[in-house]
Amino acid sequence: MAKRFMSYLNNYEVEMKEKGKAEEVEKSASAFFENLMHPSLLPGEQVICQAENTLRFAPYSDRKQGISGNLFVTNFKVTFVTADKSSYAYKETKQRQRNKLIEDNDIPLTCIDTIYQVLSGGKKRALAYGQTVSSTSKYLEIHCKDFRIHVFGFKFVAKDQNKRATNSIVHHSCPTRDDLLFAYEFGLNGKFKENSQRNQFYEQQGWAKELKRLNGEGRWRVADVNLKYHLSTSLPEYFVVPMQLTNADLQKAAGQYIEKHLPTWCYTYKNGASLVRMSQLLPESDFKACEEKMLSAIKQSSGGTVDVEVMDLTQLCPSLMEIRASGQRLMSLCMTDSTKEFYSFDSSWLSRLDSTQWLQHVATCLKVAANATDIILNKTQSVALKEETGYDLSCVISCLVQILLDPEYRTQKGFASLVQREWVVMGHPFQRRSRLVQGADSEQCPLFLMFLDCVWQLLQQFPSRLAMTETYLTSLWDTQQLGVTDTFLFDSAWHRQRFFREGGKLPEVSLPSAWDWHLQFSEEDILLFNNPLYSLFNSYDLENVIASAKGSLKRAGKSASTISYARSLTEFHGDCEGRKDLFKRPNSDVLLPVSTTAARLQLWSQCYLRWCVPAQILGGGRPAGYLQQCLLVEEVICLDHKLKILQEQKKQRERGRDQFPRPQSGLVFSLEAQSQLNSCHLTSSFPFPAEVTAQTQHKLISGPLSLYLHDSLVEYEFANSED
Amino acid sequence: MQHRLALEAVLRFSQISMDRKQNPGTQESGTSSPGLKAASRDSLAAPERQAPGSSMESPSLSSKGSDGSASKSLCSSASSSSENVENFESKVAQESSKPSPDQPPLLEGETVKGQGYDVTYLCPYSGPTRGTLSVTNYKLYFCSIDREPPLILDVPLGICSRVEKIGGSTSKGENSYGIDILCKDFRNLRFAHKQENHSRRPIFEKIQQFAFPITNKMPLFAFEFKGSYDTEEGWRIYDPQTEYRRQGVPNDGWRITHVNGNYEVADSYPSLLVVPKAQPDDELKHVAEFRTRGRFPVLSWIHPESQATITRSSQPMVGVAGKRNKDDEHYIQMIMEANAQSHKLYIMDARPSVNAVANKARGGGYENEDSYHNAELVFLDIHNIHVMRESSRKLKEECFPAIDEAHWLSKIESTHWLEHIKVILAGAVRIADKVESNKTSVLVHCSDGWDRTAQLTSLAMLMLDPYYRTIRGFEVLIEKEWVSFGHKFRQRVGHGEDKHSDDNRSPVFLQLVDCVWQMTQQFPNAFEFNEHFLITILDHLYSCLFGTFLYNCQMHAEKEKVKERTQSLWSFVNCQLEEFTNPLYAAYVHAHVLFPVASLRRIHLWTGYYCRWNPRMRPQEPIHLRNRELLVLKAQLQRRVQELQKELANKHARTNLQPSPPRMSSPVNV
User: Fold this and answer.
1) Contact A464/B621, CB-based, under 8 Å?
2) What's the ipTM?
3) Which one of A409, B208, B376, B618 has the fewest beta carbons within 10 angstroms of its own beta carbon?
4) Nearest-CA distance from B212 to chain A in Å?
5) Contact, B444 vs B348, CB < 8 A?
6) Are A465 and A410 in contact (CB under 8 A)?
7) For chain B, how are helix, strand and coil distributed in percent, rounded to 5?
8) Which residues contact A252 (CB under 8 A, 6 or more apart)?
């Protein structure tokens, strides 16, 4: 084993990663000669310090298996460069979901949650931000917000490098001001176009358009009372309020609300009932008068017949403190780094999971959202979400309600614009909640993760009704931790503007949007965000085929009424649907009822357990089912396509195949580049990289992903004829 | 074919008016008031809706309904009442025929033995409902008359574990006088009767009589069932000779022996066994003498490439004195030598080592590594049938009728059920790993070799051999490792006996099916069968409708002529395979061994089985339906493409045009 640590000396190859930027390659190429092992850098990224002869330990190897290389701390990430390609880390290099901005094993500084220093005596302590470390580390354990643990060994590192590396990680992982974040350098150097579509809610037209789509015009109006943020720095410049409230009314009322989050419009359902969000009134405010006036204005705008139902989220939902504590417990539960630790927890796993309260909190949020949806839908009553700050749990609940009510928000585009509007523009303090800069501990809270978890639960309960996959949600969480996107960096619209204009004093600072997935992923990887069940039934006109399939089911005597009693002896949940309701679609667009019973909620294992090697299912897990669905859908699309061509032939209209280009399924098997599939093995962590350790290696005997295509009816030839 | 027609005649949902059968038994159990009958007929005439496609409680009686009858404590967290109801109703709204409260659908050979009118079923989810309770020689059938659609219970009597009277004729309070039935399938049923005239007595007696036929010296219903299924005879699915031939036996190392042809060596073993070729039959008898109940080590499975084997047996009779048996030691050596790849043999003792030691006092024990050269003994720590029974009892308490929302996971943990499942799976993974990765043979035993041993060998075989992951292969596996090797189904389930506290009862087979379900969850496209298949097997483990699980061993089953006198469960399954097929099954992807993760991170409670009576556990959008739709669409399209291709080819041939038939689909091969 010791040999492995030193083996880099004999191996001078450095793997160069294509970054897509010619200058980058050039720069790296020259670096190749200057320094054999240099990290690849983004524009604006600089190396702060390095530690040579660092060991990077394989996860769950009990610090007995690792590779030697150089650890670099840059202003963006902690990265480890090795020349040792023989070792475990390179066995699985052909994984999908490779991020273009970072390598698989890089750690963005903003992703770091806690740093533990282990001293040579074995003493382990957490290093606090701003603290200067004088002792030398034996190991450094970096616990990340994406539930991963990185362990580095400093045994062979020179003393000065040891201290400096430790200090710079501690120092740079949580700077004192936001203009010290790497995003600032990145934005200064990057040429990212303002994505007007994503940022539409910073403008008046964006709100007006949404209001129009939802038939809210005439009852609600876009207010410009906060122009230049004169009224509130936590609200955006434009927001929507009841028509009858004048700017003067708003100015008067705003002062009475905490953070001036006066009631603003979120959504209007078809029946006229609306969803509104607001903060609590200040204790010294003229409580009654103000609230009554606001609520009656909302009532008027909702049709004027029923009173507004005020839901106090401070009472109904867990507090930020509870969610924060729960998130911490969840993290420490899911993050283990030794097999022994993993198994010693195993028999008490359920009660530990129970005591994190995470799933209970998820259930509560879903329950509150379902109740609000029910009130809007069935009582035609408007709902006002009231919360102390008006920009935390109201983001969660208002998004969930809108996802439940409106299929538009279940598309990827709609979901992105919803999160952009209800979280980003309405002023959820992402910077404070994910603690990107130094601040009070109590401000930190994985609220967005809780929201994503709620959406994930909906995805489990309504598998064909949302366009995205769990991989999309997990990648979104990772993106927040990347710390370079416009989307998840700021506390409010005002804060964002200040960062760009005042803080920078340079107009050309611009940042990419999180929703531009091409920034991070290849086209093929983005295909993994598409839900095959959704796309088949929503994007293709299969009515004809479905009708004939139904017909043939009937002819074959499979319909319920002809199943003899002697054949239908067992009860299977959903059986009643099972026999009759193939191809039956719900009458309603609304996703109800939502199940919130403890026995139906599950742990989001892709997000929380993906790095947990002993829990990885080799060759299986949810991704196996996902890929199989992708394949079936691809086959259906191919067959349908073929049928259309044959029908044309039958009508003697010999048209070229170019008239029928192969339809694009948007799924992974539409790819023609088989090599991708050939080299990729499946684990339950797919598409996230699977760490293969000495213990699991021999079990990786299942074939590559291309096996899925064995004997399939997928045809690729049509695509060629497109040219 | 006649049988088929006969079955069609008892169509579950046929128009009652058209083929109403006269049930001689109907008259037996007292008369009902004409008024009630009229009421029940009224509900018959009501338009359209009817109960869902199969038995049991209609899902439309959602506990979340806004009507006052819903039990508050059970549905406190109901989220969105009316939508729920609407959804479910639309699902049931289509059929045009209706079930009749006092005319239960009947199987061939089934007759109504008694009926109780004006009985109230106390549904723990939707509250009390009034209707008619019928008892036949096969089932309990309750149909409500005060609900639309009616609530229907259709419960095979074999599922009853205990039937009790509750309350007396003078008990106070509503619904306090009646019958309580504890079931083997994770539920209890409670009926309330009118307190006048001992109204429950006749029905109670009928239930007692027909739920426990063995106690009452009557035949199990399987022997009275006259139905049949138009498919390959299920009893022919498993033929030991064919199965061993599939595994490549006999071969250089192993041979088939008929030494147990008359069940003289081991009466709980099958008559046909596979042993090392070098071992003469005479000496086998000496080995058998050293093993509990004569269950000497025999072959279960052999690796097609490495020749590493899984063999099974009972414990050696070492006793406190530490007895040795040269024949046994020699025999174990031969099992090891039959595998040229390895000079080692693992003996996996399924028990915790403490229990294995304790067994010495009863004349049993375990192999001493000093006496068995090159053998390594491993204890797998699986607890005995009594611990498992206790665990399942606790599990039932947590799952039925309501669950503890606030502490659900902790409560599940405290039953230790999943921990036991994990240990069993972990043991099987260990066996599969030794055979696959180390190419080493493994001998598995516990005490008698018919409970834990059967769990371990069959699970390891499921991991190692993709054949057993097909529907047919799984049927073979059950017939082989469980039925033929003498798992004591009759005792463990307690068929037809009124001895609910019999400590021979234990959910051993249930645990196996649970473990299999866990594997299907971890490998969603590796199994040809679906969850419905597994639940069907469990339902008929208790129902006593089929002969498959009725006896303790092959000898006993043969004596009772089970194959001639009863139907096999596999006939029932195989005549409607589409019901039990997993649409995601991809044989190619999993042509190899599967290693499930034996950790509670990946082992979940099978709520689809243990909590299935709770309407809140039903999926909003069942994923298996969506997947099945994909398969149906694919088949439909495939058929139409083929038809068109044929048509076009014919046309081309006829008109003798350019011979350019449409391109056939060419699967992409890798």
Assistant:
1) yes
2) 0.91
3) B376
4) 21
5) yes
6) yes
7) 40, 15, 45
8) none
**φ and ψ at A505, to 5 degrees?**
60, 10
Smallest Cβ distance to B634: which of A612, A617, A635? A635
Q: Which of A329, A597, A667 to mutate to test the interface with B (most CBs of B within 10 A)?
A: A597
- Contact: B648, A649; criterion CB under 8 Å: yes
* Residue in A346, A564, A710 closest to B599 by CB: A346
Taking the CA of residue B336 and the nearest CA in chain A, the distance in Å comes to 24
Distance CA A7, CA B49 (A): 75
What pLDDT, on the 0 to 100 scale, is given for residue A179? Answer: 84
Q: Which pTM does this prediction carry?
A: 0.89
Residues 6+ apart with CB under 8 A from B654: none
The H-or-E segment that residue A546 falls in is helix A543-555
Beta-carbon neighbour count of residue A388 at 10 Å? 18
Beta strands B345-349 and B441-445, pairing class: parallel
Rounded Cα–Cα distance for residues A38 and A192 (Å): 26
For the segment A450-458, the average pLDDT, to the nearest whole number, is 98
Measured between CB atoms, does B2 come within 8 Å of chain A? no
- The conformation of residue B483, written as its DSSP 8-state character, comes to I
- Give the pLDDT of residue A699: 52
Chain segment B421-445, per-residue pLDDT in tens: 999 999 999 999 999 999 999 999 9
DSSP state of B78: -
Contact A377 B59 (CB under 8 A): no
Using a CB-CB cut-off of 8 Å, the residues of chain A touching B187 are none
Please compute the mean of the pLDDT values over residues A232-244 and round it to a whole number.
Answer: 95
Calculate how close chain B gets to A703, using CA atoms only, in Å. 7
Chain A residues lying within 8 Å of B583, measured CB to CB: 632
How far away is chain B from the Cα of A124, in angstroms, using its nearest Cα?
A: 27
Active site residues of B: 446
Kindly calculate the radius of gyration of chain A based on its CA atoms and give it in whole angstroms. 28
Structure tokens at A174: 């949580």
Of the candidates B91, B404, B588, which has its C-beta nearest A581's C-beta? B91
Are the CB atoms for B338 and B301 separated by under 8 Å? no
Contacts of A581 in chain B (CB under 8 A): 91, 625
Q: CA of B108: which chain A residue's CA is closest? A: A566
* Residue A342: how many other CB atoms lie within 10 Å: 18
Query: Does residue A157 sit in helix, strand or coil?
Result: coil
DSSP state of A167: H
| pLDDT value of position A197 | 64
Which residues 16-55 of B are in CB contact (within 8 Å) with A?
A: 52-55
Separation between Cα atoms, residue A545 and residue B557, nearest integer Å: 50
With tokens 């997993």, the residue in question is: B582
Which residue's structure tokens are 């027909």? B210
B666 contacts in chain A (CB < 8 Å): 715
Which of B7, B636, B651, B652 has the highest number of chain A CBs within 10 A, making it the mutation to test binding with A? Answer: B636
Each residue's pLDDT tens digit, A640-672: 888 888 888 888 665 555 567 777 888 888 876
How does pLDDT run across B119-175, given as a tens digit for each residue?
A: 999 999 999 999 999 999 999 999 999 998 899 999 999 999 999 999 988 888 888
